[in-house]
Amino acid sequence: MPINVLMPALSPTMTEGKIARWLKAEGDAVKSGQVLCEIETDKATMEVEAVDEGTLAKILVPGGTEGVKVNQPIAVIAAEGESVSAASAPVAAAAAAAPVAAPAVHAAPASAPVMEAEPDLGETKTMTVREALRDAMAEEMRRDEAVFLMGEEVAEYQGAYKVSQGLLQEFGPRRVVDTPITEQGFAGLAVGAGFMGLRPIVEFMTWNFSMQAIDQIINSAAKTLYMSGGQMGCPIVFRGPNGAASRVAAQHSQCYASWYAHCPGLKVVSPWSAADAKGLMKAAIRDPNPVLVLENEILYGTSGAVPVSSDYVVPIGKAKVVRKGKDVTITAFSIMVGKALAAAEELAKQGIDAEVIDLRSIRPLDTATIVESVKKTNRLVSVEEGWPFAGIGSEIGMRMMEECFDHLDAPVKRVCGLDIPLPYAANLEKLALPQPDWIADAAKAVLYRN
Amino acid sequence: MAPQPPKKKAKPDDNIAANPAELLKYYRDMLLIRRFEEKAGQMYGMGLIGGFCHLYIGQEAVVVGMQSAITPQDSVITSYRDHGHMLACGMDPGGVMAELTGRIGGLSKGKGGSMHMFSKEKNFYGGHGIVGAQVPLGTGLAFAYKYRGLQNVSLTYMGDGAVNQGQVYESFNMAQLWKLPVIFIIENNKYGMGTSIERASSTTDFYHRGAAHGIPGEAVDGMDVLAVREAAIRAVEHARTKGPVILEMQTYRYRGHSMSDPAKYRQKEEVEKMRAQRDPIENLAKVILEGKHADEAKLKEIDREVKEIASKAAEFAQNSPEPPVEELWTDVLVETR
Hints:
The structure holds two protein chains of two kinds. Chain A is α/β, with parallel strands linked by helices. Chain A has helices at about 90-95, 130-145, 165-170, 185-195, 215-220, 225, 255-260, 275-285, 335-350, 365-375, 390-405, 425-430, 435-445; strands at about 5, 15-20, 30, 35-40, 45-50, 55-60, 70, 75-80, 125-130, 145-150, 175-180, 200-205, 235-240, 265-270, 290-295, 305, 320-325, 330, 355-360, 360-365, 380-385, 415. Chain A folds into three domains: about 5-90, CATH 2.40.50.100; about 125-305, Thiamin diphosphate (ThDP)-binding fold, Pyr/PP domains (Rossmann fold), CATH 3.40.50; about 320-445, Rossmann fold (3-Layer(aba) Sandwich), CATH 3.40.50. Chain A has 13 helices and 22 strands. Chain A is globular and about 80 Å long. By secondary structure, chain B is an alpha/beta fold. Chain B has a single domain (about 20-255, about 265-315), classed as 3-Layer(aba) Sandwich (Rossmann fold), CATH 3.40.50. In chain B, the strands form two sheets. A seven-stranded parallel sheet of chain B has the order 1-8-9-5-4-2-3, with helices on both faces. Chain B has a two-stranded antiparallel sheet with strand order 6-7. In chain B, strand 8, helix 8 and strand 9 (about 245-250) form a beta-alpha-beta unit. The radius of gyration of chain B is 19 Å and the shape is globular. Chain B starts with 6 loop residues before the first strand and ends in an 18-residue tail after the last helix. The chains are: A alpha/beta, B alpha/beta. The interface between A and B is large, with 42 and 47 residues.
């Protein structure tokens, strides 16, 4: 029975990839462990080894093909003794029956989110969030010699998630610094360098690892300006992917927005669109204060229109209305903006016109924009991936009580990740993280339309 | 490069011996710290100073000896037993004392207190309240020197309690990996708060603690300002040209860990013996008198002078007003527009 070779998932968040080249040709004998082909993901080029033995009967997807979906058959291997010609078509039954080895892809948007065109973007270019972040850092490093990047695997490896791709080549090892795995150490070291006037960008491979360094972020970076009576500031950026990726379970799936936004002396931003990723990253680097940029791994590969101008900076502390509506306001940040927009589309089908606000900055929080919207819609749903207790939604709900209580026609509702460590199982993970239907249900609840 | 075996107590080096003017300066600087700290202790007792207050009495030779080997462009960073370091860096005693009393005339406008004071002007980078946290920060100062191609060194102080913190070794590793110009000065005063080094540390020869990273270390008599000075000169040369180095200063604090520590974990006799036999100020006075570099009268005059400075600082610290209420909200962030 011929065997289908399926496009493998080579990272937790991979949904598709490019077959760079085949190292075996049709008719070649294949032994287990031999390299069949090279696959480029958004993070790396990986070799795919054969698991089954036989003859490579047919290459279904030629080298150079992009956008090959995970689990799509890419070749057929004829087992020993089988006719190569008989095996030269994909094995339909086998393909259908193949277990879903790839991680759940529920979190990745099916297509790139459609951004509302901003009037002031100027000339734009479509690029991924990953590229936008990289370009922001590169532009600021060109602009200011005091800016440098440090972190684990940022230089020679080109970034664990490839956000720093090419920076080492342009700026050299003095300004793109590979560190040992030593978060508390290098976070503190960078803060010290910041005291001395350098402008460090510290990459945490993920924000989960920043817990090793949280004392340096809060006690050293956030408080020294105050404790020194204004003498010693720390112009530093801490950045990295935040929140759940896909199937990486409890210790690697946590949203830190509430943790860090709690602390005076810090600014916290969390972009969703590619344009904001670039504009906010540049604002963060130019800011004389410690700024934390909470990125999202799943968003790295999504694309959007990004201004070409190297002067494009998004001010910290300004939310953005990404969908205008009149019936209910939905606030969200980072990946949840996409979920909120999906919910808004669903609500529209039911005759509900939702306004969606991308918070962009968590601290300072643009309360005015939310209040303005609520004065129009009189109803508010706050969406976040993090836990409910003392979350961003708690803060927003309280602020609405303080600032526009009389404009509310229903209590504010929050949609949060479940109050549990994130489970690994695909079905449970999906049940634990906010989905568009949760948001739509919450919107209907505040409209009393259940 | 094979790591150098740590050296134990290097012999005094005649080539770098201090001259009489320098001896008198060290005497004065140590005595200023002593008198200042005595005054601070007194004011704490009067309720004029609040919170934690960690006195440096007994350890004066360490910071004065180290300071003698660096230039004003080099930086100093330490933890919370920091008054002596600030005075040795040349920071205004009135400003330090007014910070202890929480007044607007304090170096942090009264917002930092005893443990959190800074002076950009004097290259003093704090004053940090978390045990060991200043060690990566000080390593970062050295990183900035190297990044900018400067020849300066970072004096990064820590206590014997801090050397068991993980981030200290993270810093050792990076400092040696990148050959950063940093001197790690371990002020071993035998007790981390109330726990003796024997009860806290698997090994108590702290100058060995860089061995795993190939960082050379030296044990120094931290009660002898001249021994400290000589070790410091060697260490500064090493740091400027080769990279990090560790100096373990074997010293002693006469007072409790903080003002609220009754110090019941050690015998009174132990303290009395140290004071009687090893006091850094008394011993330097002996050197000065025996070498006929100055007479008793001169030393008395210095004592009068520094007592006057401490009194004036105390006076300033009591008369300076409390910070205005508006100061609550300033310096949280650098204003960006």
